[in-house]
Amino acid sequence: MSLTKTVHRSARGLAILFTFLFAGVSQASEADVKRVWQILDYLAVDYAGAVKDGKVVSPSEYDEMKEFALTARTKIAALEAKSEQPTLVAQATELEAAIGSRAEASKVGMLSKALAKHLVAVYPVPLAPSSIPDVKLGAKVYAENCASCHGATGNGDGPVGRALNPTPIAFTDKERARQRSLFALYQAASQGIAGTAMPAFGQLSEEDRWAVATYLGTFAHDGGEVEQGKKVWAEDAKAKAAVPNLDRFVGLTQNDLAESLGAKDAGAVMAYLHANPEVLNQAPTGGLTLARKQLADSLGAYKAGDQKKAQDLALSSYLDGVEPYEQALAAKDSSLKNQIEVAMSRYRSDISDKAPVGQVAAAAADVERLFTLGDQVLDDSRADATAAFLGSLTILLREGLEALLVVVAMIAFLRKAERPDVLAYVHAGWLIALLAGAATWGAATYLVTISGANREVTEGLSSLFAAAVLVSVGVWMHQKSVAGQWQAYLRERMSAALNRKSAFFMFGLAFIAVYREVFETILFYAALWGQGNDHAILAGLAAGVACLVAITVLLLRFSARLPIGKFFSASSWLVAVLAVVLTGKGVKALQEAGWIAPSALPSPRLELLGVYPSTIGLAAQAAVLAVVLGFFLWHGRAQPRPEHHG
User: Which of 98, 34, 37, 32 is nearest to 66 (CA)?
Assistant: First the structure.
């Protein structure tokens, strides 16, 4: 490296350092945070020119790197005090130590980028323009202000630039372009590069600087890459998931994007987006459009300081925008459905915990990425009759089985008790529940607004109520099964026990067991119907009905053949299990509605048993199970089963 170039680099470094030293930072202003971000970006890219394979190849540049690392740590420590500030200082100290030990450029780059990302998460500053940059305007601004130095094609060979030392940056340098984000280019245009002839273009408007920064990103790519990028963007959901919006694009480097798309596709997509940034502003049209809108509004409310509105909109994003499509997603990609649920729960938790805006924005970006993948799955399902059939079948079996088991248990019990007169109340309960559910859906669709949160509250409370009733019924039935009194009970007390009040109680239990599922089931089918494949959906519905009818017939026949003592015992265990299941589902519904705080656990989920990765849900189920088992054991010891019954 020439002495002249070394001197100029040193001068540039000193100029940047003096800018920091005399900034007088006492508060976390936007300018201060942006300057720290710029120095970290500089370290990530230029450290490779100072150290190679653990050896210093340019002492002057290496000294500059050490000074920059020290300055970054010092200035971060001087920012406004926040809870995460010590962690940032620790990261800066680690970066400083890595540079001091002549670590590999890849490690220094990783540490610098991680610190820069964490910095803007803790001290949020706007990193993106308020509107999509105009590339044509950028070309005009470049021709008028930059081409004389950087050349008409961005190769660093303009007529004025040839006389400069160091020479202007060549924007056609592909290696450098892979490491530079759009925000880094904007910062260079806004603040200049100290120690070089590159001035700050403060006289240009924000719009002009963003436009020219976007245009600069086109020089390292050719037309073939742009066309390939257009193809990848249109066909690969991972591309849109990786760059879901302008905010993400502005802070993204090509190397970052390569981690999810691979080097070739990443280069092509970046070429396409720099040339056509307007595609990032196109409104999505997939099934999760409402979910996206509510998520964006939620994040906007949080940034504006309205935590309650942000939480309400976050709930609506999931309950109104995602949940109706859950079964369609699960039929095609159950893992993605679970990822969306977990990511949305994490986002709501961050809002509840009043996390830094940057952290909440990052969580929202993760959810948005999953929404993009979800829309792709839903779009694929439109042409997949098998997925539509399975989704339709799954909806009915999943939503109907619990209600069916409760109703069948009641019918079997009344048949054993030889009380067909009370059966009419049970049948009336589930039939009216079907009609009421359909009426509720119609009212919610055409007359009034019933939010997803209200729907979940209704389901959650009714599930917990039904669980409480089933616990008492299960304990009562188990007591009769072990007491040896069932013959006398049926003979002497059944008529009195099943009076008019008890009959209405059974009507109510049948109604609640069915109604809690009907409204949501209709919503699921309405969402699935919008995906097309009507014949496959109807076939799945018919198959589901056939399965439920077959299960009903088998259970009733089996229960009819059981001796009544064994029937009481088996029924008591069945309703106890249902109580545990409904408890888990009730807690989950209330968590989704915001009535109970989310409490995620890294544990598996078993939806059939109502088991979800939730501390509160699992604790509630454990409590119900403990109560049931406690009573069962107590009855078994206190009232031993007789040796023989005639």
Answer: 98
Count of beta carbons in the 10 Å neighbourhood of residue 382: 15
Q: Between helices 357-382 and 105-122, what is the axis angle to 10°?
A: 100
C-beta separation of 590 from 463 below 8 A: no
Give dist(CA 557, CA 552) in Å, integer. Answer: 9
**Residue 26's pLDDT is what?**
37
What are residue 51's phi and psi, to 5 degrees?
-135, 135
Q: Please write the tens of the pLDDT for every residue from 462-490.
A: 777 777 776 766 666 555 555 455 555 54
Average of pLDDT values for 276-305?
A: 81
- 154 and 172 in contact (C-beta within 8 Å)? yes
User: Which letter, b or e, does each residue of 446-457 get, where b requires 16 or more Cβ atoms within 10 Å of its Cβ?
Assistant: eeeebebbebbb
At 7 the pLDDT is: 37
Give residue 341's Cα distance to chain centre: 6
Taking Cα atoms as reference points, which of 156, 182, 181, 174 lies closest to residue 267? 174
Given this model, what pLDDT does residue 2 score?
43
pLDDT at 287 over 70: no
DSSP run (H or E) holding 600: none
**Which DSSP state fits 203?**
T
pTM beyond 0.90: the answer is no
Mean pLDDT confidence for 204-225: 91
- pLDDT category, 269, cuts 50, 70, 90? very high
The 10s digit of each residue's pLDDT in 376-385 is 777 655 545 6
Per-residue model confidence as pLDDT tens digits over 387-405: 678 777 877 877 777 778 7
Question: Are 335 and 342 a contacting pair, CB within 8 Å?
Answer: no
Q: How far is residue 92's CA from residue 88's CA, in Å, rounded to a whole number?
A: 6
Listed in sequence order, the residues at least 6 apart from 561 whose beta carbon sits closer than 8 Å to its beta carbon are none
Query: Which helix (H) or strand (E) covers residue 623, if one does?
Result: helix 615-638
| Number of neighbours of residue 288 by Cβ within 10 angstroms | 25
H or E segment and range at residue 256? helix 254-261
Q: Please, are residues 254 and 177 in contact by the beta-carbon 8 Å criterion?
A: yes
Asked whether the beta carbons of 568 and 481 are under 8 A apart, the reply is yes
Name, in order, each residue with C-beta under 8 angstroms of 603's C-beta and a sequence gap of 6 or more. 613, 618
CA dist 509 and 403 (Å) reads: 10
Tokens of 261: 């798309």
Give the N- to C-terminal CA distance of the chain in Å, as an integer: 106
Q: Please say whether the beta carbons of 407 and 513 come within 8 A.
A: yes
pLDDT at position 16 over 50: no
* Per-residue pLDDT at 79 exceeds 80: yes
* Chain position carrying tokens 């049931």: 628
- CA 143 to CA 221: how far, in whole Å? 18
The β-bridge partners of 51 are 56
In degrees, to the nearest 5, what angle opens at C-alpha 407 toward C-alphas 404 and 411? 130
CB 70 within 8 A of CB 96: yes
Q: Which residues contact 278 (CB under 8 A, 6 or more apart)?
A: 132
Work out the average pLDDT over 485-499: 50
> Do 91 and 112 meet the contact criterion of CB atoms below 8 Å apart?
no
State the pLDDT confidence band at 20, using cuts at 50, 70 and 90: very low
